[in-house]
Amino acid sequence: MSKIDPATGEKKLVLTIPDVYRHRSLGLLGMAVHPTEPYVYLDYTHRNDDSSLVSRLVRYTRGNDT
């Protein structure tokens, strides 16, 4: 996930999620930013050890520089 400064267009990598399973319409499915708290919610496809596919909903906390 990257953050883009709208004033300068500068792009900064802030998060890498190595266990996202990407194939056709699978992968990063959604993202929401909490309006008052420093939380970002990501929904993505993950392949379990038994090869089953699941959707993971994960909450991350934004830092001052992210």
Report on the architecture of this protein:
It is a single chain. With 66 residues, the chain is an all-beta fold. Helix content is 0%, strand content 45%. The protein contains no helices and five strands. The chain has strands spanning 2-4, 11-13, 28-33, 39-47, 53-61. The strands form two sheets. The protein has a three-stranded antiparallel beta sheet with strand order 3-4-5, with no helix packed on it. The chain has a two-stranded antiparallel sheet with strand order 1-2. A hairpin with a 5-residue loop joins β3 and β4 (39-47). The mean pLDDT is 90.
Based on secondary structure, the structural category is mainly beta
Helix content: under 10%
> What is the count of helical runs?
0
Total strands: the figure is 5
Strand order, biggest sheet?
3-4-5
Work out the radius of gyration. 14 Å
Instruction: Tell me the β content.
Output: over 45%
Largest sheet: 3 strands, antiparallel
N-to-C span: 10 Å
- How much is the average pLDDT? 90
**Poorly predicted ranges:** none
General form:
globular
- The helix-strand sequence is EEEEE
Quick description:
By secondary structure, this protein is mainly β.
